[in-house]
Amino acid sequence: MEKSGVRLGNSLIITLVAERTRWQLWLPVVLAAGIGAYFALPVEPPRWIGPLAVLCCTMAGIVLRRKTLVAVAAAGLALAATGFTVAAERSASVAAPVLDRPTGPVQLAGRIAEVEPLENGQRLTLDRLQLSWMNGGAPVLRRVRLHLPAEVDARPGQRIALHAVLMPPPPPAAPGAYDFSRQAWFKGLGAVGYAVGPPQIIPAETAETLVETMRLKLANLRHDLTGRIVGAIDGAGVPGGVGAVAAALITAERGPLSPDLLQAYRDAGLAHILVIAGMHMSMVAGLVFVAIRGGLAAIPALALRYPIKKWTAAGALLITFGYLVISGAPVPTQRAFMMNGIILLAVLIDREAISLRSITWAATVILLLQPEALMGASFQLSFAAVYGLISGYEALGPHLARWRSGGDGWWRMPAFYVAGILLTTQIAGSATAFYTIFHFNRYATYSLLGNFLAVPVVGFWVMPAALLAFCLLPFGLDGWGWQLMGWGIVFVNHIALWVSALPGATVNLPSIPALSLVVFTLGGLWLCLWKTRWRLWGLAAMAAALILYAIHQPPDMLVDAGGHLVAVRAADGRLALSQTRAAKSVREAWTKQAGQGTEAPLWREIEGDRLRCDALGCVYRSRGHVVALARHAEAVESDCREADLVVLPIPFGGTCPSARTVIDAARLAHHGTHAIWLREGGGIRIQTVEDWQGDRPWTRHGVIDGEP
Description:
The strands form 4 sheets. The protein has a 5-stranded mixed beta barrel with strand order 1-2-3-5-4. Helices cover 52% and strands 14% of the residues. The longest helix is centred in the middle third of the chain and has 29 residues, at 412-440. The chain is of the alpha+beta class. Among the domains are: 2-93; 105-206, CATH 2.40.50; 514-551; 557-672, no CATH class. Helix 12 (331-348) packs across helix 13 and helix 14 (377-404) packs parallel to helix 18 (514-529).
């Protein structure tokens, strides 16, 4: 046994040494592990733990540097501890007051930091707030986000006064659901709400710093460009809504996009077109590179004497940086710019650009600057697609090169282009499928067809027209370019609507547990980042993740924080709702998590052996358990004699002899939505939103107490 262990250790060392050139590729992965560990904690750790762990692991690695495996493990732990520290420090650095409870209509004034056009109005983010309802000396909210039902001529940098109803950033609709309160914490949002009555633009009184002035100028530039694009396209007879799609491709303003059209893009597997990422940045860089180099090559005096290829790379780098700035620099665009930038810099310094290294450094920089991005769909989908594509083409590259050089027929180039689109779509779709299901509970069946039809239109029509519009912009003739771009988008819209309407275009799937996602990610990275045969062990981890998903048991019941909405699992496995009038966003989140899309039956449709109701309430029976769902206080006495669990929409301070647990209005209000599992022959497991979130900075409301 001892000799077997030694042989295994030696084999592991030999394999690691053989993969030495790939070690650096794991840099962002280990960093992300530490960041993920921070966000997974149930309580906020002391700030000294991370730095101490970094120091201890680094010292251990130095002392034990002669023992290869131990030194590598110590270095990895030090890097993970660095990620943990970066996440903790980032969380502390953005700390800001948060509203405790909803307010009535209150008067406030603030500077407009962001303006987001919506289909039904606008959404404003305000900072530098003045709140007339705050008690003297109390901390002031740093930022709030408000919905204005009607459009006003609001611009970043202006000050605005209005009456609004404010609420704390909402918690997740259920354990495991999307956590807006965490996102709001890192954005500095202390409250969200909506305007009551018309707002009033007031004169600004505070001088801006140079950095703030530049930020506001860029925000105004994006705002003006969005309006210019939408106005030029929608005002030229192009079908309605196309201007919003064009703006999404240039300035990343997706707010006014029709929800139906947005869903069609998702269902056709074309949602990536609406996110400024690798495809858009590469198209822009490629078009600019070809145009500049072609123009310079046409001048023999320059082409024969000067390094026009480097000049071209510098020009393409400058243009792509401008695209990054105009887009507002969301995470996928940052990643795409860094990757393209590394490749263009490699041209400038006569070095070969290694793609996996470029994505490694892009991921590392983003994680160090914005560690919270790791938890978002944008980061996960973007990097999953790129890692899959780079690794896939790395493996298939020699075979594709032989096929491409196999003959001189005229048909080979267009065939190779079509095959490239299909292969790219298939690899990217496979790499992101698990993450798409995790975040959206939906899978696009015909994404291969949608991309085969739409991507050439974007590459040869839409993006070149956008570049033409920018070239004409200094002369005031950019409207022609935007209109040409708009008609190309009309074609793409038709493709999205047609593909999404095909039978079986989408499959709704229940939520994936977080553990499955972690195991799948580690398996996928193991497969992508190593080069020798042991990379195939990643497939085993990915298969294990699928098994974990298959055996995952969703909750049998859900009770919302207000006690007004209850869902139970029907005999056929569907989630059934008590009503369709209360808590619309919660209903939608529950049915989506259950893999039912937007449809869920009502209790009256499933009443039978499991569920029986009368005027006082309902009784739900499953797996040998009896749950009483009371509607009135009169039902409590009988329920407490028969049920294992009692759910009440009113406060209850008495005792229940039969029920092991009583979930009343006070408990629901304090702990949030309850997810309940009824175990066959066992007990009842309950997890609340408060349990799932833990005691973290973004859950500690109570810094500011709003007036009711």
